[in-house]
Design a protein that fits this description.
This protein is an alpha+beta fold. It is 43% helix and 25% strand.
C-alpha cells in the first residue's frame, strides 16, 4: 500500500488527473449500462406473456414462431432464406501510411424493409424490428476484399484493380422461418376511418394530376383547362373510390402489430433467443457492469484522496 501511495504521489500531475478522469468516466458509463440492464431485466420478469388473440392494447410481451409476411426473403449479403434480415458493410481505414493501425468505417447498411409475422397459435401480429434492440442467434460476420457477394464474377476489371487492396467487413443478422421469437413492445391494432379515407382521396387526386389522359377526361367543356366545378366533380369521384376501398379493407379484421413505444422506459426488444438465455445475458450485463463500474469509481476516488493527502 505504501508503494502504491508513493507511486500516486509521484505520478506526473497531467497524467494522473487525466487517468483519474478517464477511470471515473468509464466507471460512470458502466454503472449506467448496468442500471439500464437491471431495468430491462425487471421489465422482462414483470411483464406476463400475452396471447395475440386476447392481448390488450399497450406494452406487452409475445412469444411465438416467426413467419414471412408474404413470400420468404433472401438475405442481402449471404442469400440465405429468412423472414427478416439486417446487414452492414464496413471498410477498414488505415490511420497511418504503414497500415499498422486504423478503424472500421460503415459504408452501407440496411434491413429487409418490411415486417415479419409472429404466430403464437392464437393469432398473428406484424413485427418490424428496425428500431428494436435485437438479440438474434443467426448472425454472421466475415471479412473480404469485396463489399458483398452479390456481384461475384460480374465486377469490372478496372473497379477490381482499385478494390484489390481494400478490406471490408460484412455483418448480417437474420430471423428464419419457424424460429422461436420473443418480442417486448407496444401491441396495437390499426384503426381505419375518416383520416385514412382523406389520405387515400388526396393520393388519388395527386396521381390524377400527373395523368394527362385523366385530366382531359375531367375537362368536360373541352377548353383545355379543368375549372373549379370540374375539379369538384373529380374530388367527389376520388372520395367515392376511397370510401369503397376503405369499406373493402374494413371487411377484413386488421392485423395487430408490435411497434416501438415513445417512452424511453419501455424498450422495444426482439429476440430469437429464448427468455431464459436472454435473462442470463441481462443479469451478467447488469451485475458485471454495475460492479466493475463501481470498482473503477471507488478506485479513482481513492487515488484522488491519496493524491490530495500526499
Amino acid at each position: 500500500m505504501d508503494l502504491l501511495a508513493d507511486a500516486i504521489a509521484t505520478e506526473d500531475p497531467v497524467g494522473f488527473w487525466l487517468g483519474a478522469a478517464i477511470a471515473a468516466g468509464v466507471g460512470a458509463w458502466l454503472v449506467h449500462r448496468g442500471l439500464r440492464a437491471f431495468w430491462g431485466l425487471r421489465l422482462i420478469v414483470d411483464t406476463p406473456t400475452a396471447r395475440i388473440r386476447s392481448a390488450p392494447q399497450g406494452y406487452v410481451e409475445l412469444q411465438g414462431l416467426a413467419a414471412p409476411l408474404r413470400e420468404p426473403l433472401r438475405a442481402r449479403l449471404t442469400g440465405k432464406p429468412c423472414v427478416w434480415y439486417q446487414w452492414q458493410v464496413e471498410e477498414y481505414q488505415s490511420s497511418s501510411s504503414a497500415r499498422r493501425s486504423g478503424h472500421w468505417v460503415t459504408r452501407d447498411r440496411g434491413d429487409a424493409g418490411r415486417p415479419f409475422l409472429i404466430d403464437d397459435g392464437t393469432g398473428q401480429a406484424e413485427v418490424l424490428p428496425a428500431n428494436a434492440k435485437l438479440h438474434l442467434r443467426s448472425r454472421d460476420r466475415w471479412q473480404g476484399p469485396r463489399p458483398d457477394q452479390s456481384d461475384r464474377g460480374q465486377q469490372n476489371p478496372i473497379t477490381a484493380f482499385f478494390r484489390r487492396h481494400r478490406r471490408y467487413r460484412m455483418t448480417e443478422a437474420r430471423v428464419h422461418d419457424g424460429e422461436p421469437v420473443y418480442v417486448l413492445g407496444r401491441f396495437e391494432t390499426p384503426r381505419r376511418g375518416v383520416r385514412e379515407r382523406a389520405a387515400l382521396t388526396r393520393t388519388l387526386l395527386a396521381r390524377w394530376k400527373r395523368d394527362p389522359g385523366r385530366m382531359q377526361a375531367f375537362d368536360r367543356d373541352g377548353d383545355g383547362e379543368v375549372d373549379l366545378a370540374e375539379w369538384d366533380r373529380a374530388r367527389a369521384k376520388a372520395a367515392r373510390l376511397a370510401e369503397r376501398a376503405e369499406a373493402k379493407l374494413s371487411a377484413d379484421p386488421p392485423r395487430p402489430r408490435m411497434v416501438a413505444t415513445s417512452e424511453p422506459s419501455q424498450p422495444f426488444l426482439v429476440s430469437t433467443e429464448d427468455e431464459a438465455t436472454l435473462l442470463t445475458k441481462l443479469r451478467l450485463r447488469a451485475f458485471g457492469g454495475t460492479a466493475l463500474g463501481a470498482l473503477l469509481g471507488v478506485g479513482a476516488a481513492a487515488a484522488v484522496l491519496a493524491r490530495l493527502g500526499a
